[in-house]
């Protein structure tokens, strides 16, 4: 075997090995959040030795000898960094830009931890659903109208909305995760693209969960009356608090209350094209009945096609997630255009924001 062929074989074998076990990265990340390691390191001033970390995390003594192996994996994965020890001293672990996103202290990142988001996407529902992907493709759930629309349904006998409705713990974890991610995204949108809210006096966040998005908008633009429309099982657990946001239990497929603007953040990617058209048609009725000249719909979602490799990988990974979990999809520009036209909208504008996401202004 030639040297070049031998090198290619070695590299390919290594890549295959890493891909085969890449699910362990997700599990290690979930473990980091559960063990509170980023907060522990932050509380030690942003760098901590292994003995310091061991003294602060809640694990039994007989498990502590295993922690160095987890920490080494976290360093190799880029979740933490490590300064090798000098003679007579302990090496120190440091937070990276990634692990700073998992720190609760808002002074370090401005919006709080994304730890809840990690936990919301590494649940038993998500992980076990992915193991059904090949069976789903091969049609081992049967055929015809009884076939499962998604691997999630094969794994759990119901879709994600059904699971959220009957498992309150899953419902709380899931909505807390989406809320934590919303704060980051909306803080960025408000700071960099605040002009999308010009001329808006009322906004309805459809599928807005705990209201994190609506609250962020209201804080930045106090004159905008913000409301959330979501399913009853979501609204029932929410404590209205200070009255900054109104909560409405309802179904976006049936009716959407009149409003100047509608926010759809991470909503349309959950649904197939036909369902998206139905949702957008309800949105069009709502904004046109409120403003004769027509309002607008603000969509925060993925527009597949980033020229940057890491961003594109995040986009297509999210698309695969939608196929597994929700039966929806991430869309490229042509696919977005198709559902906009079919919904009766005349014009729209796409602006890339925060890496792999975009904000779409959809005008009636």
CATH topology call of the largest domain: Rossmann fold
The mean pLDDT is 91
Nearest-angstrom radius of gyration? 23 Å
Q: Which spans have pLDDT < 50 for at least 5 consecutive residues?
A: none
Task: Give the topology string: H per helix, E per strand.
Answer: HHHEHHEEHHHHHHHHEHEHEEHEHEHEE
CATH superfamily of the largest domain: Vaccinia Virus protein VP39
Computed structural class = alpha/beta
Strand residue percentage: 15-25%
Helical content stands at 40-55%
Indicate the multimeric state. single chain
**Distance N terminus to C terminus?**
64 Å
How many helices? 18
- What CATH architecture label of the largest domain applies? 3-Layer(aba) Sandwich
Question: How many structurally independent domains?
Answer: 2
Shape: globular
The biggest beta sheet is recorded as:
8 strands, mixed
Structure description:
The chain has two domains: 3-104, Orthogonal Bundle (Arc Repressor Mutant, subunit A), CATH 1.10.10.10; 188-363, Vaccinia Virus protein VP39 (Rossmann fold, 3-Layer(aba) Sandwich), CATH 3.40.50. It contains 18 helices and eleven strands. It has helices at residues 3-20, 23-35, 37-43, 50-56, 67-76, 97-100, 106-109, 115-120, 124-130, 133-137, 151-156, 160-166, 168-193, 212-220, 232-235, 273-290, 309-325, 333-343; strands at 47-49, 80-83, 92-95, 202-206, 225-230, 245-249, 261-265, 296-304, 331-332, 347-353, 357-363. The longest helix is centred in the middle third of the chain and has 26 residues, at 168-193. The mean pLDDT is 91.
